[in-house]
């Protein structure tokens, strides 16, 4: 890179002292001051564009100092601040930008510098300073500039914690949107800004906005919901009617109608009426039949007792679920139970929150209780179970390196992510990862890659290649040669550099994967000393690194350990967890199982158990605390004084309104699934400390990366 000499710098300084001509000499060439500044600025900008920010910062500094009277000086100061920010030198960047914003001389870059300064101060956590810098920038803008930059200004205010200004400019951005796509994006940003606003500021915004503005109905609806939650039903109803006078279709109109429904139905809430929303028709009808059987043990579904029920059909569809909640609210239900599906679960929760009727969902949809404070859930989620297994393996089984073989499915991806995240948090690592298509029936290729026994892996082993070459050179018969090479492959020891193997799939698929793992000479029955000795004698290997099998709630299936299926021996010693175990010796669980079996002559599953527990929790509150309003019912659920001793464990609702209860910890012992105490001595031996992995090279497998990261 070309740099000016000291002599050149001196000649420039001398030329600047002769200001009347405004001429400078650069590289022996005479030019105007602005031409010289332009050349120096362009060089610095080229470095900036090429991400050479150190060089750019120095170049812009030279322009600002040596050509202070040129037209490029102020812009150079701004660009230097940006370059310093790119380098992470936020204090220096802030100082550089403040010189422009607070300087005595007027600068045409003051507004832009103030915007940049606010963003830097927000990154530093200096929210009050950032907000003030934003106000300085905005004060200098024309109305046209504010309208043109409304979205960026809103984002800057939001990062500075100035929620009122953020929402006001997000409203301007929505008003300025021209295409449907842009309007949808701006509306989403605006609604997030509204939700972050305090009540008084929100009320001012609603009053200031023109009712014909597209920004008014969303703000009014947000305020109406706040008023409804605060018990100000009169003003909430008035706002809802005003919204419907401006919009009569779409989500905003539906939200206003939900507020009106909440207000009208809340006055008619019946303290002893429990609503039940289930898919009585459609693909999930069979599950509803199971749940209704369990509910009948907790509540008289014929309404012959003090507690009454109203059952509505969700049809297993989101629209049907929302309508079911509406209908139950009109009936006067004080609380809603159900539904069970993912899509219908979210739709029912959203509508219940809008109306203001508490709902205890049986849906496993992730994050459903985040919809609002009227949404509760009594069901184990897939991610919660996976995280628990990962934490147990690390803390109690001393496992710190893991293999994962998972299906390419929404379930597999979701559970794998939760498991992997828990490993990252615990400081452990995944050393082998395979992702197989759904409906795969042959798992040898996937397992072979995990343990370094695929053909590609073997070809990178020096010993294998040398022995293969000897066989090729010494055996002429093609059949015998292939047979001998196959024998050599089978004798090549697997590279087992993980302590545990996690398989998040159904029992049916695990019955195929587990034998494939054993076929690669990976020992998973570490708790069975007899099996371990047999393996050592068979392979003539004394130094055997055993691997602990880990599963999910889907493993809690008698088919997995059915000797007739032929896979029971390969899952010996496996550990997993579930939200219910019918063979548990917990007294409350045993009583429920016995009562259910006596009534229906079959054993209950996890769905019936959770349904019964949730129904009994609601009934206990109705019987003992007698809440007269839906808000009182919500408060009673959120502040249960003592856990409910149920079929799925002792249950209370946490601050996130998720049911908090102990899991059922299970392991496989000689063809049976047995429960164990996770706080006691583990039923399987802890992992032996494993050496750290060899850093990846061109001849070794790369470190696995979590999907989506």
How would you describe this protein?
With 709 residues, this protein is an alpha/beta fold. 53% of the residues lie in helices and 11% in strands. It contains 29 helices and 17 strands. Strands 4-3-5-6-7 form a five-stranded parallel beta sheet, sandwiched between helices. The chain has a four-stranded parallel beta sheet with strand order 9-8-10-11, sandwiched between helices. A hairpin with a 5-residue loop joins strand 14 and strand 15 (659-660). Helix 5 runs antiparallel to helix 6 and helix 6 packs antiparallel against helix 7 (127-139). The radius of gyration is 34 Å and the shape is flat. Mean pLDDT is 86; it is low at 1-21 and 693-700.
Secondary structure layout:
Blueprint: H1 6-17, E1 23-26, E2 29-32, H2 33-49, H3 53-66, H4 73-86, H5 90-101, H6 110-123, H7 127-139, H8 143-148, H9 150-159, H10 163-176, H11 180-195, H12 199-208, H13 216-229, H14 233-246, H15 250-266, E3 273-278, H16 285-298, E4 308-313, H17 318-331, E5 335-337, H18 342-355, E6 359-361, E7 375-377, H19 382-395, E8 401-407, H20 410-425, E9 429-436, H21 444-450, H22 455-459, H23 462-474, H24 478-491, E10 500-502, H25 507-519, H26 529-539, E11 548-550, E12 575-578, H27 587-600, H28 606-624, H29 630-638, E13 644-646, E14 649-653, E15 659-660, E16 664-669, E17 672-676
Parallel strand pairs: 3-4, 3-5, 5-6, 6-7, 8-9, 8-10, 10-11
Antiparallel strand pairs: 1-2, 12-16, 13-14, 14-15, 16-17
């Amino acid at each position: 890179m070309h740099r000016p000499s000291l002599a050149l710098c001196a000649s420039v300084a001398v030329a600047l002292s002769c200001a009347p001509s405004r001429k400078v000499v650069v590289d022996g060439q005479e030019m105007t001051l602005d031409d010289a500044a332009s050349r120096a600025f362009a060089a610095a900008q080229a470095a900036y564009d090429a991400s050479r920010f150190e060089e750019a910062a120095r170049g812009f500094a030279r322009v600002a100092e040596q050509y202070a009277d040129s037209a490029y000086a102020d812009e150079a100061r701004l660009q230097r601040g940006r370059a310093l920010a790119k380098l992470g030198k936020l204090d220096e960047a802030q100082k550089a930008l403040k010189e422009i914003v607070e300087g005595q001389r007027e600068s045409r870059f003051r507004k832009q510098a103030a915007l940049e300064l606010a963003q830097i101060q927000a990154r530093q956590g200096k929210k009050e300073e950032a907000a003030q810098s934003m106000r300085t920038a905005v004060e200098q803008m024309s109305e046209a500039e504010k309208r043109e930059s409304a979205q960026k200004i809103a984002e800057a205010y939001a990062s500075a914690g100035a929620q009122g200004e953020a929402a006001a400019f997000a409203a301007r951005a929505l008003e300025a949107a021209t295409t449907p796509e842009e309007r949808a994006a701006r509306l989403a940003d605006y609604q997030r800004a509204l939700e972050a606003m305090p009540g008084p500021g929100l009320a001012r915004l609603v009053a200031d906005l023109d009712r014909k503005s597209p920004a008014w109905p969303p703000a009014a609806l947000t305020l109406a919901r706040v008023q409804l939650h605060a018990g100000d039903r009169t003003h909430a109803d008035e706002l809802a009617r005003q919204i419907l006078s401006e919009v009569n279709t779409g989500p905003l109109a539906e939200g206003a109608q939900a507020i009106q429904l909440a207000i009208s139905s809340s006055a008619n809430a019946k303290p002893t009426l429990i609503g039940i929303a289930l898919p009585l028709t459609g693909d999930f009808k069979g599950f509803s039949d199971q749940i209704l059987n369990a509910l009948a043990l907790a509540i008289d579904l014929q309404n012959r007792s003090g507690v009454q029920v109203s059952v509505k059909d969700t049809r297993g569809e989101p629209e049907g679920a929302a309508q079911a909640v509406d209908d139950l609210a009109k009936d006067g239900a004080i609380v809603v139970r159900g539904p069970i599906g993912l899509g219908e679960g979210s739709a029912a929760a959203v509508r219940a929150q809008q109306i203001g009727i508490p709902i205890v969902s049986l849906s496993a949809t992730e994050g459903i209780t985040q919809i609002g404070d009227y949404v509760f859930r009594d069901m184990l989620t897939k991610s919660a179970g996976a995280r628990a297994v990962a934490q147990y393996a690390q803390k109690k089984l001393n496992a710190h390196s893991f293999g994962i073989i998972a299906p390419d499915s929404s379930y597999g991806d979701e559970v794998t992510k939760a498991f992997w995240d828990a490993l990252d948090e615990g400081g452990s690592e995944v050393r082998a990862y395979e992702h197989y298509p759904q409906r795969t029936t042959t798992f040898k290729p996937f397992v072979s890659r995990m343990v370094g026994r695929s053909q590609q892996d073997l070809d990178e082993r020096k010993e294998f290649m040398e022995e293969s070459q000897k066989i090729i050179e010494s055996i002429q018969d093609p059949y015998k040669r292939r047979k001998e090479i196959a024998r050599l492959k089978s004798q090549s020891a697997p590279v087992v550099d993980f302590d545990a193997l996690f398989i998040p799939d159904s029992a049916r698929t695990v019955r195929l994967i587990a034998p494939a793992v054993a076929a690669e000479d990976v020992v998973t029955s570490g708790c069975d000393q007899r099996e371990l000795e047999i393996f050592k004698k068979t392979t003539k290997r004394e130094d055997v690194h055993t691997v602990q099998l880990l599963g999910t709630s889907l493993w809690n299936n008698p088919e997995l350990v059915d000797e007739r299926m032929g896979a029971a021996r390969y899952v010996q010693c496996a550990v997993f967890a579930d939200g219910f175990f019918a063979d548990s010796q917990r007294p409350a669980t045993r009583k429920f199982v016995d009562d259910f079996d006596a009534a229906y002559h079959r054993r209950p599953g996890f769905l019936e158990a959770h349904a019964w527990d949730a129904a009994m929790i609601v009934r206990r509150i109705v019987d003992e605390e007698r809440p007269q309003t839906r808000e009182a019912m919500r408060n009673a659920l959120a502040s249960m004084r003592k856990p409910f001793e149920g079929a799925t464990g002792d249950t209370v609702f946490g601050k996130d309104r998720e049911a908090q209860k102990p899991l059922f910890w299970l392991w496989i012992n000689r063809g049976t699934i047995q429960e164990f105490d996770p706080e006691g001595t583990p039923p399987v031996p802890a992992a032996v400390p494993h050496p750290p992995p060899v850093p990846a090279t061109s001849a070794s497998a790369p470190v696995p990366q979590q999907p989506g990261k």
